[in-house]
Amino acid sequence: MKFIIKTLGCQSNLNYSKSFYYFIKPFSNINNIYFDILLINTCSVRELCHKRIFFLLKKNYKLKFLRIFNGCLINLFYLKLIKKSFVNIIINNAFTILKILIYNFYFYNCKQLYLKNIYKIENYKNINIIISEGCDKYCNYCIIPYTRGREIFYDLFSIFKNILLISVKFKEIYFFGQNVNSYKSFLKDKIIKFYLFIKIINEINKNNNYYYLTSNVKYAILYIKIYKNNKFLHLPLQSASNSILESMNRKYNFNFYKSFIYKVKKHLKDFLFSTDIIICFPGEIHDLYNKTLLSIEKLLFDKSYIFIYNVRSFTNSIFFFNNINLKLKKKRFIYLKKKFINNIFYINKLFINKYFYFILKNILLSYNHLFFSFLNNRKIIFFIKYKYLKINKFLKMKIKKIYLNRFFSFFI
Ligand code: SF4
């Protein structure tokens, strides 16, 4: 039996695909199963993405696949998917009982099952830990709150347990969730918010690096001790114009972001930030776009994910009047991209002749003794060492040269 996993969308989906792989792998050794498995981890953020999924399903309709569906699109279209028999099994991240579902399909030809919200983190080999699901922020351009539902948080003790188990093997842990920094849990009668949670795990296991993406910096606090190990943070600014942020229903203003970044950089000079920017949102006149452009230079974002605003059905922003033409959208996109690339050039130069501590991640070519790893600010370092080095070993190196392409920099 073969299985194919198709992943669309965000890091959470990638993480679910990895979990699925571990659960499904034992099936691949069974020879007399008459079907292959196709799992699609769906995404609904962009209209184009959901069209692609339906196209894929229709194209493979006649092939003998057991079609399993996961991800946020199912909450929008599960009735359509089941009625038209595009899928056999719909799971909502319920990987732990996936085996039972597949047996049911195999022995009883039980074709359509729908399970909702049965979550468990069991994959100790994975360094990604999902701590929350769903979102309560309702940004006007985003479909996530309607597809993934209201925010829920995993239990504090099960997260601690997972961290302790995986930290034997891994030194870098990523927290995922739609809004990690709105995380809340209870310890007796005390409420534990995200930054207290990070503080506690930092105290329990000081040797690990913890990474996370935050969607709303409004709740971010400056706790330098946390950031000493992890010198990278993703802050999705979206726009530097307060009026655009307001019409997006983002609950912060640009100055808040700016002062947070300045404070962090004051204490930790080599700290880097990445961001998401949406350009050409309805009402973004040229002056407001220019504000974003200038702020990119001021705040020195190292990586950026720039999106041209697209109308997404089921969201509030479809009612907004948008008169920016395609030619202008493309022009703005290219110009902003250039600014970001200049930033990367500038930032990378600051690292030359500096020393860095890092954990060795991989051996690229053992014959040529070529190694590579990530620094704690997520830059990639390549080096040659004519000596056997163990993975996960702590190293100290001086950056000598930097090569840059569009996407990332190489340190040699
Ligand atoms: S914070 Fe806004 S953009 Fe992010 S998932 Fe929630 S609604 Fe969507």
TrEMBL record:
Cofactors demanded by this protein: [4Fe-4S] cluster
InterPro entries the record matches: Elp3/MiaA/NifB-like_rSAM (IPR006638), Methylthiotransferase_CS (IPR020612), Methylthiotransferase_N (IPR013848), Methylthiotransferase_N_sf (IPR038135), rSAM (IPR007197), rSAM_horseshoe (IPR023404), rSAM_sf (IPR058240)
Residue ranges constituting the Radical SAM core domain according to the UniProt record: 121-348
Name this polypeptide is given: tRNA-i(6)A37 methylthiotransferase
PROSITE patterns: MTTASE_N, MTTASE_RADICAL, RADICAL_SAM
Regions that span the bilayer: 85-106
Keyword set, alphabetical order: 4Fe-4S, Iron, Iron-sulfur, Membrane, Metal-binding, S-adenosyl-L-methionine, Transmembrane, Transmembrane helix
GO CC annotation terms, alphabetical: cytosol
Domain MTTase N-terminal residues, every copy: 1-109
Keyword Membrane part of the UniProt annotation: yes
Protein's gene: miaB
SUPFAM superfamilies (alphabetical): Radical SAM enzymes
GO molecular function: 4 iron, 4 sulfur cluster binding; metal ion binding; tRNA-2-methylthio-N(6)-dimethylallyladenosine(37) synthase activity
